[in-house]
Amino acid sequence: MLYRSRKTQAIINLSALKSNYQNIANLAPHSKTIAVIKANAYGHGAIEVAKSLHSQVPAFAVAFMDEAIVLRTAGITLPILILEGPLDEKDFSLAKQHNFWLMLHNEQQVSWLKHHPDYTEKLWLKIDTGMNRLGFSPESAKEMLTNLTLEQKQGLVICSHFSSADEADNLKTQDQIACLRSFAQKYSCQISLANSAGIINWPQSHDDFNRLGLALYGTNPTPAKNMPIELAPVMTLQSTIIAIRNLAIGESVGYGESWQAKRDSVIATVAIGYADGYPRNAQAGTPVFINNQLAPLAGRVSMDMITIDITELTGVKLGDVVELWGENLSVELVAEHMNTINYELLTCVSARVPKVYINQET
Ligand SMILES: Cc1ncc(COP(=O)(O)O)c(C=O)c1O
Question: Who lines ligand 1 at CB under 6 A?
Answer without folding.
Answer: 36, 83, 161, 195-197, 211-214, 221
